[in-house]
């Protein structure tokens, strides 16, 4: 694990790009979660669940949000299950190894119908501000849904960070909701390889 934390950020980014192209990017005819048709598909879970990919995601996502976390407050990291789950875990783990407290909490698409009946799971009750993460952003709907769930319990959703921005309106939707938007890769970078 230590060697990943010592790798220069540009090397981590290059390694992640190779991994995405190897295990998560495909061309063909696909229908996206938004209902849109696409000539390519990015299965972000394939890369963020990958043993190397989880750690690389943690390193890269933390690099995107360290400035926000350093500004103060008690920070959390969330996103809509299932695509965001490995990113949340990997980023919180890498943050902890670097001495940064970043509370993970997970957002269901809808509240459980049993038990505590919560939509959020984890340490959200300790958090005042959060970052919403996504593997791939198309319209931004999933990120905005997770942000709304955080706001419902009094957490300020400050930013959305995506592994890949498909550049189909997601950035504009997130920024239109008053959040910062950052992406580690654009779809053009993936397709250039």
Please, could you describe this protein's structure?
The chain has 193 residues and is α/β, with parallel strands linked by helices. It has a six-stranded mixed beta sheet, sandwiched between helices. It has a single domain, classed as Rossmann fold. It is globular. The mean pLDDT is 92. The chain contains eight helices and eight strands. The longest helix has 20 residues. Helix 2 packs across helix 4 and helix 4 packs across helix 5.
> So what's the oligomer here?
single chain
Which regions have little confidence, pLDDT < 50, spanning 5+ residues? none
CATH topology call: Rossmann fold
Percent of residues in helices: 40-55%
Return the CATH architecture.
3-Layer(aba) Sandwich
What is the global morphology? globular
Record field, number of beta strands: 8
Q: DSSP strand (E) fraction? A: 25-35%
Give a summary of the structure in a few sentences.
The protein has eight helices and eight strands.
Output the keywords.
193 residues; alpha/beta; Rossmann fold; six-stranded mixed beta sheet; two-stranded antiparallel sheet; 8 helices; 8 strands; 42% helix; 26% strand
Task: List the topology elements.
Elements: H1 2-6, H2 9-23, E1 25-31, E2 37-42, H3 44-48, H4 51-70, E3 75-78, H5 85-97, E4 103-107, E5 120-122, E6 129-137, H6 141-152, E7 156-165, H7 170-176, E8 180-186, H8 187-191
Parallel strand pairs: 3-4, 3-6, 6-7, 7-8
Antiparallel strand pairs: 1-2, 4-5
């Amino acid at each position: 694990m230590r060697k990943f934390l010592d790798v220069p950020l540009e090397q981590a980014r290059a390694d992640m790009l190779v991994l995405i192209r190897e295990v998560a990017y495909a061309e063909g005819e696909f229908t996206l979660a938004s209902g849109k048709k696409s000539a390519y598909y990015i299965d972000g879970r394939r890369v963020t669940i990958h043993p190397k990919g989880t750690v690389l995601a943690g390193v890269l996502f933390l690099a995107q949000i360290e400035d926000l976390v350093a500004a103060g407050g008690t920070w959390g990291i969330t996103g809509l299950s299932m695509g965001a789950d490995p990113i949340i875990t990997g980023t919180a783990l890498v943050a902890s190894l670097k001495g940064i407290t970043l509370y993970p909490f997970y957002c269901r698409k809808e509240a459980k119908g049993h038990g505590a009946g919560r939509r959020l799971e984890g340490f959200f009750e300790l958090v005042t501000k959060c970052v919403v993460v996504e593997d791939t952003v198309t319209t931004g709907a999933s990120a905005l849904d997770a942000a709304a769930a955080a706001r419902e319990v009094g957490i300020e959703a400050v930013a959305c960070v995506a592994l890949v921005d498909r550049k189909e309106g997601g950035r504009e939707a997130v920024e239109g909701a008053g959040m910062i938007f950052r992406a580690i890769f654009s779809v053009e970078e993936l397709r250039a390889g």
